[in-house]
Specification:
Elements (H helix, E strand, L loop, with lengths): L4 H55 L7 H26 L15 H22 L4 H10 L1 H38 L5 H24 L1 H24 L10 H27 L8
Helix pairs in contact: 1-2, 1-3, 4-8, 5-6, 5-7, 7-8
């Protein structure tokens, strides 16, 4: 039996409260990861600089004078120490207090992930106990489509940027390697440049071929465009929905079509996640 309009509105508000809680938890998890990254990288920066200077001096002892490099490293080291002190104050509220505040601790993000799983389960149970009319559920589903389209496009743009970055490394690195290798009597610095650029080109080509960033971006953008086409068509009553007098039937057809497109995208994603098979020799 369908709920009354007032009960349905209260049920929808309850589901929105669950969504708000889930979004807040996800934001807290992302913020905790960023804070933890800043904390660890800042504390590791000064020891890393000292280690690099130590290894560099040992490796070039008696051959290269690194006095200027060592002198230049002193103000950088002092700046890193000041940065460590600032991060310590932000994370504890007290420079001499060794106890981190809760949201800076290593286990904070893990605890919030547990809360997130529980919040999603609460929403699922609440939605299961909510007896909304099927047509209302489909209308709610239709209004979530713009967000899904935006997410697909954002993911596609991210993969496209990664692909373009690696392609730029391959192009520039290939040209730099060829130029450095073609120099007559290549001095030692240019030999190291050749080695470094060759390694970068190989690394970028390997990542591009294995993770297939271009294909991922193409399929995500294709899915987003197809779903947007269906969304515009059902709203404007054009295409397959032209002349449909029954809005409920059009909405049902739209829901089925969008689910097919999403399932196709998931299948393509699973295929891309499979490792490339190498032919047996």
């Amino acid at each position: 039996m369908a709920q009354s309009p007032g009960a349905a509105e209260r049920a929808i508000e309850g589901l929105l409260d669950h969504d708000r809680k889930i979004l807040d938890l996800r934001h807290e998890i992302r913020s905790a990861h960023v804070r933890r990254f800043v904390l660890v990288s800042t504390y590791a920066s000064a020891p890393t600089l000292l280690l690099l200077l130590f290894v560099g001096n040992i490796a070039t002892w008696g051959r290269v004078d690194l006095t200027r490099v060592n002198i230049a490293g002193i103000p950088i080291l002092l700046a890193l120490l000041v940065l460590c002190a600032v991060v310590r104050i932000l994370s504890t509220g007290d420079l001499f207090d060794g106890v981190l505040t809760e949201d800076w601790e290593a286990g904070y993000a893990a605890e919030k992930k547990i809360d997130l799983v529980l919040a999603i389960e609460r929403k699922r149970l609440s939605a299961a106990s909510t007896n909304l009319p099927t047509e209302t559920r489909r209308h709610i589903y239709r209004e979530t489509i713009p967000g899904a389209i935006e997410q697909y496009r954002a993911d596609g743009l991210r993969y496209r940027r990664i692909h373009n970055f690696f392609q730029s490394v391959i192009i520039i690195g290939s040209l730099a390697t060829s130029t450095a290798a073609s120099l007559a009597e290549t001095p030692a610095p240019f030999k190291w440049i050749t080695v470094g650029t060759s390694f970068s080109v190989g690394l970028a080509a390997g990542f591009t071929g294995y993770f297939k960033f271009r294909e991922r971006s193409f399929y995500l953008q294709q899915t987003a465009d197809s779903i947007e086409e269906e969304y515009d068509a059902v709203n404007l009553k054009v295409g397959r929905y032209k002349g449909t007098a029954d809005d409920a039937a059009a909405l049902l057809d739209f829901t089925e079509r969008v689910e097919i497109l999403k399932n196709d995208q998931r299948k393509r994603q699973q295929q891309l996640d499979q490792p490339t098979e190498t032919p047996e020799g």
